[in-house]
Design a protein that fits this description.
The chain has 467 residues and is α+β, with helices and mostly antiparallel strands. The protein has eleven helices and twelve strands.
Length: 467
């Protein structure tokens, strides 16, 4: 009997050991299954994070980014009843809800967002910690959250600040509403990774927008600088031209003064000689010619002296069309010999302008002769007048256009055409266009030129209509 009892006890001990071994095996198997499940969950989450990262990298709009993040956050963390993403309004230093998932409409309360943005890193609130945090939230905000989030109050919450380096940008708040799927500490690295990706993506969009704005500002600044530089260059060119014209004026006045004395002496001498000649003396005809030419020289000297200061007595109501017709008649022989076909299209009933007719005639003659020189093998010359529509702040203006089909002007010569002593002609003095520009300016007008090699030249003269 003793051996049987010992055998029975041994068998029972073996059965106990076997059951214990089976229990340990089942526990190991369950742990292996749990680890495998966690590995699968981890792999799925990593894949989701990578997919979110790829999507954020190609996003170029803040609204698209925040909507993507809250949508993916709700699926990345099972049991989430609501996902809120807030961005900081730097002007007012307040948090603004920019995207929400799990609610039918945007809530008015910030909830735990104020706590989330101030947190150094992501955090998990469960049980008493969450109750204490919610107790510090304003009652109106809690009421708003309760009315819009199903299954309130939550069993757990995940908070993550949106931050790039030391710059706070916003916060992500996830509320867990199912007790069977409480958030776990292993969720913290994933919500932190999602928050970091979101902050970087938003910051990139904002930096890109700032860069574009700076680029636009730079382009505007460069344009304004170029415009100012062009105006400065024009002003400098005009100042230089004025200085040259002033030098020409001083030279003309000096020459006129120096010539006047011997000129008057010569005229007086001829007058005295004439007094001693007999009325029928044959030398009188030569004296008359000499007196006439000396008188012409005196008038030329007077014009040289008064050219830069025309007297008011010489200004009168002048018809631009009449001056142009007379000038074209004057050069008819020149036009025929040069095989140039001239056409005048003059607007009828142009108002008269107060001007020095001889000076304007000199301007038109100089430009027309230059046009003839530019067409050595013949061509077409068009002279047009037009009454330009007056702006409220500007006087009425007459436009005169002299167009030729000649060889044109090289671009490097155009900026210097109206400078004194600048010429491209072998026998030119470089004063014709400079004097013409000065005459037009003295009349309150403006002269411009457009030309290109082989495409002819257009001179535009704008003269105000004097009331």
């Amino acid at each position: 009997m003793g051996e049987q009892e010992n055998m029975r006890a041994y068998i029972l001990e073996l059965e106990g050991r076997l059951r214990a071994a089976e229990a340990r095996a089942e526990a190991v198997e369950r742990e292996a299954e749990l680890q495998q499940s966690r590995a699968i969950e981890l792999s799925a989450r990593l894949s989701a994070i990578l997919s979110i990262s790829a999507a954020l990298l190609i996003s170029r709009d803040v609204d698209a980014i925040v909507q993507l993040v809250v949508r993916e956050a709700a699926s990345l963390f099972p049991g989430t009843s609501a996902a809120h993403l807030f961005l900081l309004d730097t002007e007012n230093d307040t948090l603004i809800l920019r995207a929400a998932a799990g609610v039918s409409e945007r809530v008015s309360g910030r909830g735990l967002a104020d706590m989330a943005i101030l947190a150094p890193r992501s955090m998990l609130l469960v049980g008493p910690q969450l109750e204490i945090a919610l107790a510090e939230v304003d009652e109106e905000e809690i009421a708003s959250l309760r009315s819009h989030i199903p299954g309130w109050p939550p069993y757990s919450a995940l908070l993550a600040p949106l931050r790039v380096e030391s710059t706070r940008m916003g916060a992500i708040v996830l509320y867990g509403g199912v007790s069977a799927h409480l958030y776990h500490p292993r969720d913290i690295p994933f919500i932190q990774a999602l928050a970091d990706l979101t902050a970087v993506a938003i910051d990139e969009v904002l930096q890109r927008a700032r860069a574009a704005a700076l680029q636009r500002d730079l382009a505007i600044t460069q344009s304004l600088h170029a415009e100012a530089q062009a105006r400065l260059n024009t002003a400098q060119a005009q100042l230089l031209q004025s200085a040259k014209l002033a030098a020409v004026g001083e030279l003309s006045a000096s020459v006129a003064h120096e010539i006047n004395n011997p000129l008057y002496a010569a005229r007086n001498s001829l007058y005295l000689v004439e007094q001693d000649l007999a009325p029928d003396a044959p030398q009188r005809s030569f004296l008359a010619i000499a007196q006439q030419e000396l008188g012409r020289i005196a008038r030329i000297i007077t014009r040289m002296r008064d050219f830069y200061r025309p007297t008011r007595a010489e200004l009168a109501a002048t018809s631009i069309n009449t001056i142009l017709r007379e000038t074209l008649e004057l050069v008819q022989t020149h036009l025929r010999h040069g095989h140039i076909h001239a056409v005048a299209t003059l607007e009828p009933d142009l108002p008269a302008t107060i001007a020095h007719a001889d000076q304007l005639r000199q301007v038109f003659l100089n430009i027309i002769l230059n046009a003839c020189d530019a067409m050595p093998r013949g061509g077409d010359l068009r002279v047009t007048t037009q009454m330009l529509q007056a702006r409220p702040e500007a006087p009425a203006t007459i436009g005169v256009y002299i167009v030729d089909t000649g060889v044109g002007i090289a671009p490097e010569h155009l900026p210097h055409l109206f400078e004194p002593f600048y010429t491209t002609k072998a026998q030119g003095t470089g004063l014709g266009l400079a004097i013409s520009a000065h005459i037009v300016t003295q009349h309150g007008g403006r002269i411009t030129v457009e030309s290109a090699p082989g495409q002819g030249t257009t001179f535009t003269i704008l003269l105000p209509v004097s009331q």
